[in-house]
Amino acid sequence: MGYNQKEFGKFCGVSQQVVSGIETDSKKPSKTFSKFIDYLYSETFGVVGLKETTHLKIISIFKDTEWAENINEMLLEIEGLDPDEKREIKGYLEGKLSTLKRRTETKKKTVQPQKSSR
Q1: How far, in Å, CA of 37 to CA of 41, rounded?
Q2: Residue ranges in the chain assigned as alpha helix (H)
Q3: pTM above threshold 0.70
């Protein structure tokens, strides 16, 4: 499978301009290829594709990686749904997040200490 500059850059975590610069010999390849080599020797090489690799990068951002892995598994399942089902899930999640944010704001307002009336 071949990659164009943009795809290869995305795969290696660098911009298309960096890949182009390497091909024209105006940039040093170390950053691009070190990321690529890290990927080649990672546990995920040959097991998962670019989409899954991107999901793994996102998981690493979270403090609770087990929770993030579970959510990501659900996201990958959602990918296989039809557009109407995806919109339904998105609407539910947006509504639920909005409700939780309002609840959090209400809790913050009720927990704030009262000002003294001296």
Answers
A1: 6
A2: 5-12, 16-23, 30-40, 50-59, 65-79, 83-111
A3: no
